[in-house]
Design a protein that fits this description.
The complex is a heterodimer of chains A (159) and B (76). Chain A has helices at residues 15-30, 69-72, 83-97, 103-112, 121-126, 143-150; strands at 5-10, 34-39, 116-120, 139-141, 155-158. Chain A is α/β, with parallel strands linked by helices and 159 residues long. With 76 residues, chain B is of the alpha+beta class. The chains are: A alpha/beta (159), B alpha+beta (76).
Chain lengths: 159, 76
């Protein structure tokens, strides 16, 4: 069996959107895919040693909320101070109770499975990010580096 | 259920953990040996079928018993 290839671009830095890249990459590795994730813009938050990601109900009418709040709670009030941390801690509790892995665990599993993690150098410079804040094993490179692998990939996802 | 060589209890774990744990356990087993997996994630039924088809490991048995899903996978 020829080794298939999966290339992912991760662009989002919220708790909810951090899951798809790591779930798909770790699963693909288990199925024998060679996998690479290119993290750009807000996606770079997923590479920080200290993951402090949040989820916001603001501007997200599709997000299920406790007590059916997504149906009756006024949108404007989701902007109130503290709403973000309340929703984030509820989401984390919900995930733990349903046996969903933590992001740290999934990321570690990706690294164990030799998923290559590439940080967009341009974004690192743009936001004056400290490379020391990222986990070990991250490669810093640009768009051309991504295409080198993505051009031969069987599946290419933009998340 | 037929005999098996190793057992993995993935009860309470959700996608993709049962698959990842199974892959890891199989990696430490010899070819021809059989892994018994127990899971509670209903999605694992289709997932283990797909896992077997894509990795070449044989899914010998798949059944549900009292809300638990059980699988026998023979390492290729």
């Amino acid at each position: 069996m020829d080794e298939k290839k999966l290339a992912i671009i991760a662009t989002k830095g919220t708790l909810d959107w951090a899951y798809p890249p790591f779930i798909l990459a770790s699963t693909a590795s288990a199925l024998g895919y060679e996998t690479e994730i290119f993290f750009t813009f807000y996606g770079l938050q997923l590479l920080k040693k200290d993951l402090d990601l949040k989820v916001s109900p603001l501007g997200n009418p599709g997000m299920p909320m406790p007590m059916g709040m997504d149906k009756w709670f006024p949108t404007l009030l989701t902007a109130l101070p503290g709403m973000e941390s309340v929703m984030t801690s509820m989401m984390k509790k919900k995930m733990a109770s349903k046996g969903v892995a933590s992001l740290e665990e999934l990321r570690e599993l990706c690294q164990e499975a030799e998923v290559r993690l590439i940080a967009c150098q341009m974004t690192v410079d743009l936001f004056d990010m400290d490379p020391a804040a990222f986990i070990e094993g991250v490669e810093f490179a640009g768009a051309a580096r991504f295409f080198e692998f993505a051009g031969q990939s069987d599946i290419c996802l933009y998340i | 259920m037929a005999d098996f060589d190793e057992e993995l209890d993935a009860s309470g774990l959700n996608c993709p953990l049962p698959i990842l744990r199974a892959k890891k356990t199989l990696a430490g087993m010899e070819s021809g040996k059989v892994l018994h997996i127990i899971a509670t994630d209903p999605g694992s039924v289709k997932d283990f079928e797909a896992f077997a088809r894509q990795t070449g490991n044989e899914l010998m048995e798949s059944k549900e018993e009292g809300g638990k899903f059980q699988f026998l996978i023979k390492k290729a």
